[in-house]
Fold this protein.
Amino acid sequence: MTATASRTLVDRPGEQAARSQHPGPIRIGVGGPVGAGKTQLIERITRALSREISMAAVTNDIYTIEDAKILAAQGILPVDRIVGLETGGCPHTAIREDTSMNEAAIAELVERHPDLEVVFVESGGDNLSATFSPELVDFSIYVIDVAQGEKIPRKAGQGMIKSDLFVINKTDLAPHVGADLAVMEADSKVFRGDRPFCFTNLKTDEGLDHVIKWLRHDVLMTDLES
């Protein structure tokens, strides 16, 4: 099965536009378990859109800034457009209960680059219930990977249910771990309702076009004819 869930990308521009409540750049949270592909997704998005829009990223880790280093090493975002935070404790606290560190990081990025249009806020790897505070981000993406097993969508954690886009990554691993993508798609349809989701293999950029389409249409609102 290939990553062809584009029919699940629904058109809700009016609702999405009303959600962009923060002054300055649009804020997009990217959450999901450790190793699901959050950092890689941000890297792929910024690579695809770097000539179109001004972007930056804030990464959250418990005791390191490893994800920030990975993003910087790719060379797509300049180092001064990346802020790595060491949150300590439970990583979900910094994106939900006490977002002050992330707010300060975003303010720092805006001061450095007044032209910023989008800031990605990557959560530290966390459980399926982690969600972003609406006071911190305008939109959120939740990423899981196929290697976690086909039953993961069935667990319907709050991160998967409430995110604006749900991404099931690493589809190439399905035959190696015995995961049925058709089952994962069916389960995702049940708990997502009319909210969009898609399959990706970010290693080869398969399915990335669905993510970019969602960003352009529902978030940036630059592709409302499609």
Q: What stands out?
A: The two ends are 25 Å apart (CA to CA). The beta strands are 26-31, 55-61, 82-86, 118-122, 139-145, 165-169, 197-199. The CA atoms of residues 66 and 84 lie 8 Å apart.
